[in-house]
């Protein structure tokens, strides 16, 4: 009940855009229909309330007695999320990545059960995550859920400041 109280108190403090984001993800979790998206992106500059949105969502899901997973690309960012851990820790992402990398998490373990039971995965600082890490997590969740949809059909909220990532131009210069 404490989690639900925190969620309700936070919802009262959200601005209209933040409230829309929270309700959109909650709607996907609890009133899902086949034509609805399962992957969401929350983009915003530093100080725009992304962490507050994540916190509200995590409290709302936990307040209903459901599992929500909070991950971040860095340990510092993970400390700002309720129950947050690094993506590498939760998914057992290898340190050396390539296009065929796989996560070192075994099925039929307590860690795998947590992922299977999760109603939503909230991933902060997603733009800082290497694409091969996302591919490895995608493969892991597909294997665990036996579902070929992106991320094994899990509801996922990827957030961060997508302007922090500049395009890489081969043989380009700073000018």
Automatic annotation (TrEMBL):
Residue ranges crossing the lipid bilayer per the database entry: none
Protein name as it appears in the record: ATP-dependent DNA helicase
Cofactor: Mg(2+)
Source taxon at top rank: Eukaryota
Molecular functions (GO terms): 5'-3' DNA helicase activity; ATP binding; ATP hydrolysis activity
Coiled-coil annotated spans: none
One of the GO biological process terms: DNA repair
Entry keyword ATP-binding: yes
UniProt-listed Enzyme Commission number(s): 5.6.2.3
UniProt keyword Hydrolase, yes or no: yes
Phylogenetic lineage: Eukaryota, Metazoa, Ecdysozoa, Arthropoda, Chelicerata
Domain DNA helicase Pif1-like DEAD-box helicase: 13-174
Keyword list, A-Z: ATP-binding, DNA damage, DNA recombination, DNA repair, Helicase, Hydrolase, Nucleotide-binding
Protein family membership: Belongs to the helicase family.
């Amino acid at each position: 009940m404490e989690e639900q109280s925190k969620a309700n108190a936070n919802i009262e403090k959200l601005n209209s855009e933040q409230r829309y984001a929270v309700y959109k993800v909650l709607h996907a979790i609890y009133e899902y229909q086949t034509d609805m998206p399962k992957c969401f992106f929350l983009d915003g500059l530093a100080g725009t309330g992304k962490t507050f949105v994540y916190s509200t969502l995590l409290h709302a899901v936990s307040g209903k007695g459901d599992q929500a997973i909070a991950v971040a690309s860095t340990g510092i960012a993970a400390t700002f999320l309720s129950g947050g851990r690094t993506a590498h820790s939760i998914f057992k992402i290898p340190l050396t990545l390539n296009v065929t990398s796989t996560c070192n998490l075994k099925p039929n373990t307590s860690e795998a059960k947590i992922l299977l039971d999760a109603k939503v995965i909230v991933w902060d600082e997603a733009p800082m995550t290497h694409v091969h890490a996302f591919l490895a997590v995608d493969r892991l969740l597909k294997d665990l859920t036996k579902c070929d949809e992106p991320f094994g059909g899990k509801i996922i909220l990827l957030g961060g400041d997508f302007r922090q990532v500049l395009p890489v131009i081969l043989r380009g210069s700073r000018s």
